[in-house]
Each structure stands twice: as C-alpha cells, then as structure tokens.
Amino acid sequence: QKEVEQNSGPLSVPEGAIASLNCTYSDRGSQSFFWYRQYSGKSPELIMSIYSNGDKEDGRFTAQLNKASQYVSLLIRDSQPSDSATYLCAVNIFYSGGGADGLTFGKGTHLIIQP
Amino acid sequence: DTAVSQTPKYLVTQMGNDKSIKCEQNLGHDTMYWYKQDSKKFLKIMFSYNNKELIINETVPNRFSPKSPDKAHLNLHINSLELGDSAVYFCASSHLAGAGPAKNIQYFGAGTRLSVL
To answer: Which residue spans within B72-116 are E strands per DSSP?
Structure first.
C-alpha cells in the first residue's frame, strides 16, 4: 500500500526565515512528486512539481528529491505571512498501460509564519 | 474562465437520499479525478477517468458511481447517502498523453462540501 508521510505540525517559522517541509513515501515506483498548498476552506493549489533527483527552484520555493532515500522536501525562503497554509506532499505512479494512478497525498503540514 | 468547475459548492441533504455533483474542465485534459477530503483534512483519491474509461477505482462503496458523458465532464453520483459521506469532494483534471514536463500535474476544482444530516 502506497503511503506518504508528513509531520502534521504546526510548524511555526518567523517571517523572513526559511521554512523547511519534509515528506517521505513508501512506493519506490513513484515517478512524479508534487507540493500543493491549501488554504483553509480552499482547494489544493500546485506549488512545485519534481520528477528527477536533485533540486528544482522556482522563485522563493525549492523542491528537493532523493529517490534513494524516498524523500521529498520543500524549502520556502523569505517566508511571508501569506505562506501560512497547509502544505500537501503528493506522489503518483504510472501504470504500464499508459494510465495513471491518482495522486497519493500526505496528511499535510500546517505552516504558520509569525509576523 | 474557471479551469475546473464543480457544482454545487454546498450540498446539504438527508440520509438515504441520492445526489449528484457535476464537474467540468475546459483545459483540454484527457484525465479527470474525484477526491474526498474528510474532516481530518486527509485527501484521498476515489476515481479517475481517461478517455471515458475508468482507470482506477479505489475501494469506495458502490453507492458512489462516476459518470463521464464526454472528456470534459466527470460527474459523481451518490446513492443512499450516509452520515459518513459528509466531506469535501474535489474534482481534478490532468493531461497524461506524452511525457512532457507537465506530466500529470493535476488542477483542482473549488470543491463541493457535502453535509449529510
């Protein structure tokens, strides 16, 4: 059974600091990895996608993937109060027939940026 | 225009009723999904449809049935509603064909909050 684990938090970070969010997954066949942000009462919004080992940077966000350790992380630099939300780690696997599994989500990390 | 739209946004109903939630995407995607987010905010896949064929069917009760009249729509029908069905249901879509950089990035609708009384 595929599982995605995240620390539920809350993770409290001072404004302007770096927020570090971590995620581990159980299925070695996982091929695509995503970070979604979800504000209370809203739908998940894609922040980052990453498919190969290493770092991927987009603005203040950096995703890191280590497939050998089955570990994905998200760094948020210069954290802002508007970054306060729940961050969901998600992974998926493709079937050999060309179809795709839905995303398997972690339970999310609640991030609080303190002004 | 909203990329993935769901209706209704809120649905309050009595136990035992039958209800439907509609979803439409205008992104030209070939795969659509239904997710359920429970009271503990855990988001879990229920179904996905690719080119009008069901790809996966998680172990959800057969009271739930997805119906796709065309590639842009995936509706969710729920029969004999139970208290435990109360949750937020999200529709999503993605493009699977090919192996481009945006492979299987899923875009979510705003959600339908279902309350069963």
So the answer is: 73-78, 87-94, 107-108, 112-116
